Fold this protein.
Amino acid sequence: MIIEALIGVTFLAALVVMLAPDEYAGKLAFALSLLPVAGSLWMWAGFDAGGNALMAGSIAYQTQLDWLTVAGYDLQWFVGVDGISLPLVVLSTVLSSLAIVSAWTPIDTRQSQFYGLMLFMEANLLGVFTALDFFLWFVFWEAVLVPMYFLIGVWGGPRRKYAAIKFFVYTNIASLVMFIGFMALVFNLPVSSFGLPEITQALQAGKLSGFVGLDPATLKLAAFTAMFAGFAVKVPIVPFHTWLPDAHVEAPTPVSVMLAGVLLKMGTYALLRFNFTMLPDVATRPLVATVIAAVAVVSVIYGAMLALAQQDLKRIVAYSSVSSMGYVILGLIAYTGLGIGGATFQMVAHGLISGLMFMAVGVIYNVTHTRMVGDMSGMADRMPVTVGILVAGAFGYMGLPLMAGFAAEYFIFQGAFASTVIPSAPLFTAASMFGIVIVAGYLLFAMQRTLFGEFSLETDYEVRRAHFHDVAPLAVLLLCTIALGVAPNIFFEMITDAIEPVVAVVGGGA
Amino acid sequence: MEPALLQADQLPTWTALAPVLALAVTGLLLLVIDSIDPNDTRPTLLAGVGTVGALAALGLAGWFLSAGTGQPSTNGAITLYGDALIVDGMTLFFQALFASVTALVVVASYDYLRGRAYQAEFYALMLFAATGMALMAAANSLAVAFVALELASLPSYALVAFLKRDTGSVEAGLKYFLIGALSSAVFAFGISLVYAATGSLLLPDVYEALAGDLTGLTGVAGVGILMVAGGFAFKTASVPFHFWAPEAYEGAPAPVSGFLSSASKAAGFAVAFRVFVTGFPLEAGVDWVLLFQVLAVVTMTLGNFAAATQEEVKRMLAYSSIGHAGYALIGLAAFTGAAGGDVLGASMAHLLVYGFMNTGAFLFVALAEHWGVGRTFDDYAGLASKAPVASVAMSVFMFSLAGLPPFGGFFSKYFLFMGAVDAGFWWLAAVGAVNSALSLFYYSRVVKALWLDDAVSEFELGSTPTALYAAVVFAALATVLLLPGFGPVIETAQSAAAAIVP
């Protein structure tokens, strides 16, 4: 019942905040958002699942109720968590609370609507990560789009309408493609419900039948392609990434934090759950694996190169997300314990670090009103704490040991190197490692120009230190990043436990 | 026919028509009130009586549905007056739909009509139109179908032209009437041809005659069926008899547009479903499924593309309602005989959800007209900052019409497309899905205008019309609640549909 309570309380909080007066909305939203944080931590404390939820593992906090029946298929309210979803649930609640605090300074119009939508989005995100029935999952998945559309479109920058529509149309068409691909699978399986575990197990038992002249293998390939394309937009993977920089640059800081920190993970989470868990035999075909690995490496390198070419701090961070998500894809296709485990760990690590970076850039923007690298220098002089945390976060991004990013990327490289699924895996791995060099290049370059040296910024007001409530979420995120870097097993153990069955299916090894 | 008693409550059979009677009596009562007090000084009384009548019809239909009247769980369908009328699950389902829409529209009209003359006539006409629709759902004979269709249509012509000092309204009424008269003629001629070929007007007899040996009259029957389909195309605003719809919906008072595009369209489908499924056997050499496949594809595509190019919200909604007629036609287009109940039921459920979301959208337009906001997308800019609650409701309608998951419209469309896939017509579902995805473009334009765009000019909204607001909010609530509560709706619809498949 705890999952229902978690989602229900968050929905209720959204409603309450929506109706609250603007002056108190921010504080109230933060206070209420602590409830889901406490709930998710409590779930973590009592977590007792083992194995993968989709592959006959034991599911924690499971509820399964019939909702309705469509032409012989049961739709259910079916929720629960395993070692893959729990870390993402915790990430969602924590990051939402911090993002709400970071909105106190920049959001100065229609606050109650803003915070209400943030909480509404959080509730749906929790649904995405806990739903184990396809329909239920899809309802939450699509419902996330609606608040995001408004958050970008109403409170965004000058080109916010274009960015909001682009985001909405891109991801919605992608969802449709994915939906059709998945339906094509379900219709040809002898299953009685849309429960993801049942579908996964039927698929792996080879019960798929052909469809309008396609034999099962071709149908699987077609469905895999449709689903991959659909999720690739969400992740995003080059060449489906063009909505991301627009959305990020126009979105207000707290919304960017949620977008990079949690929404992108919806895509990688779904890839892991659907494509890589349900259809491992397609993913491990040499051609498919090569294409995916190549796309991953291109995302890593091309994303980093794009970041290198930017002048806008937020664009830099946005493009570097494309690069980081490339690592996740590489880890997933490696099909080794460390590869998939590292990819899942990277989802959490990148959620924390990119959230930190976006927030720090936002704090600087709040006082400078510019994000252009060329417009400022020596910010360390005026905002020592913020800049200190930003630098620490940037090093985390580059993969400094004892930070979460290092652990994640190390696992991924190690796992990808040993992969038996990707042909000539060491080559791909080595190529992707160059991404790190480029990341270090653009981050160091941008920091050197903006943060250090003599202070200069053309303003007609005194540049002051940031508020305590602006810096505090940064510090919390930094602490989490370090904690995960020092002791990755906080999450990595349960992740490994949950992904082991996935790896075992293809015999990918540790 | 043995007069079957109602199992659940042991009432005489004629009471199965209670929902129709409730609507008819309310209409008459309104005329009586008007003749006693002809000056329309009591709009509250008039609207109140109309609402109570519509709600009573809804309550009766709902009660009968749950009690099992006319359904397989009791004695099966109840036929009356020499089999000319039939009351079964489908009849009651559609009657509940018409009554809900009528109630919403009557409530909304209370504010919309404030200060106008001839209010009693307005409400009376609306209830008579609703009576005709309720009768259409109960028609078991082609003659009754024709008469009921006219009973629903004639008041509608007057309602469209209700704003008689407004040239748009009058022009719309005239166009609607001319095309309506033409299609009635086509329909009547079709009926006479079917009668010539089969020798009967009662649907079960027609079915038997067509399924038997026609001795050279197949051609006559075929032309007759084609012309009957033309009559339904008019009532449901489907291609090729659709072009009255944008004019009529745009010119008519917005509550009337909502009434016509939801209830009247559904009534057309109610009678089309029954006539084609129970009257015209597929094996008789007339492949009407193919006809409806062509109509469905053309109607949904044309409606969607035309909607995408509109600059006025009301006109966009008019074209979108043509597109939705195309979706609902899938119920007949993917009909495969014995197993066709599922897709037919999905179509009925879609019409029910559509009844709420589309009526709600038109009522929002009525709200905008009440405030004197303009008609185009640009005129709606920034409305959300003045009227947040109504704007949330309108956003719900738009997203639901587009078929986004968190709302009722997602499930109803999904079941419809899935029914088509199940029946083997996956290409029909694919065309529907692509159209549905495209439709998001023009629906989201309204949401964008409401919430994202800044108001072009300062405007004051003035009064808050409570009744209109209540109707809009109620329709939005229903649209949202039809997502979790879709189970009973689809089950009722599919079992009702399965019961009529011969």
Notes: The beta strands of chain B are 78-80, 85-87. Confidence is low (pLDDT under 50) at residues 1-8 of chain B.
